[in-house]
Amino acid sequence: GAVVSQHPSWVICKSGTSVKIECRSLDFQATTMFWYRQFPKQSLMLMATSNEGSKATYEQGVEKDKFLINHASLTLSTLTVTSAHPEDSSFYICSARVWSSGRNLGNEQFFGPGTRLTVL
Amino acid sequence: AQSVTQLDSQVPVFEEAPVELRCNYSSSVSVYLFWYVQYPNQGLQLLLKYLSGSTLVESINGFEAEFNKSQTSFHLRKPSVHISDTAEYFCAVSPTFGNEKLTFGTGTRLTIIP
């Protein structure tokens, strides 16, 4: 249980185009999903917290107009990188928080396999 | 706010030797503690976690970690490593209430030498 998928697993795009990344919780409902960015050989940097049915909460320094997040359902959150540039190339990882009978299981998050974005 | 320190960025270990990956944290509130493993080009997988109770927690593949509140540490150990343990290991904490954000350490790359 608690499986999170991401699509696509990798994408290459031209500079100036927009790219959408999907994050799905396959066997549970996730009221909260998180989006991280990971640079090579570095740790994960939290970009934003996505709550179903409401606006995402962005971390300081993350441009909300560039990284559009939509959490339209309890099993799907999307991250759209708008007008992508080479500096946006990175590994993007989402995670979902599990709730059981209304109680958070130790704030545990389950992670997707990641999406590698390369902007040419 | 919380912070996590993983002092060792890289740890090379011979196969079947023991290993310890160090993790120290700082927090003004009580926290949950996690170890995640990341294999090349993959997302993170939960290795083990400490929520409450026994301070020694174990994973199914032979890793264990011990929560030491006085030393604010959560070191990861394995008595005998295997080639397949080669990966990046991240220590993380999150508050036990309120803000559920995970704070990660910078990671330790474990390389197993045949």
How would you concisely characterize the structure shown here?
By secondary structure, chain A is mainly beta. Chain A contains no helices and eleven strands. Chain A has strands at residues 4-7, 10-13, 19-25, 32-38, 44-51, 57-58, 67-73, 76-81, 90-100, 103-111, 115-119.
| Global morphology of chain A | globular
Largest interface: A-B, 24 and 23 residues
Global mean pLDDT of chain B? 92
Outline the low-pLDDT stretches of chain B.
none
User: Helicity level of chain B, as a percent range?
Assistant: under 10%
- The strand count of chain B comes to 12
Report the β-strand fraction of chain B as a percent range: over 45%
Main sheet specs of chain A: 7 strands, mixed
Oligomer: heterodimer
Look at the helices and sheets of chain A and give the structural class.
mainly beta
Number of strands of chain A: 11
Structure description:
- The complex is a heterodimer of chains A (120) and B (114).
- With 120 residues, chain A is an all-beta fold.
- Helices cover 0% and strands 58% of the residues of chain A.
- Chain A has strands at 4-7, 10-13, 19-25, 32-38, 44-51, 57-58, 67-73, 76-81, 90-100, 103-111, 115-119.
- By secondary structure, chain B is mostly beta strands.
- Chain B is built from no helices and 12 strands.
- In chain B, the strands form 3 sheets. In chain B, strands 2, 5, 6, 10, 11 and 12 form a 6-stranded mixed sheet that branches. In chain B, strands 3-9-8-7 form a 4-stranded antiparallel sheet, with no helix packed on it.
- The model of chain B has no long low-confidence stretch (mean pLDDT 92).
- Classes of the chains: A mainly beta (120), B mainly beta (114).
- The A-B interface holds A 4, 6, 32, 34, 41-44, 46, 49, 93, 95, 97, 104, 106-114, 116 and B 32, 34, 36, 41-46, 49, 51, 90, 94-96, 100-102, 104-107, 109.
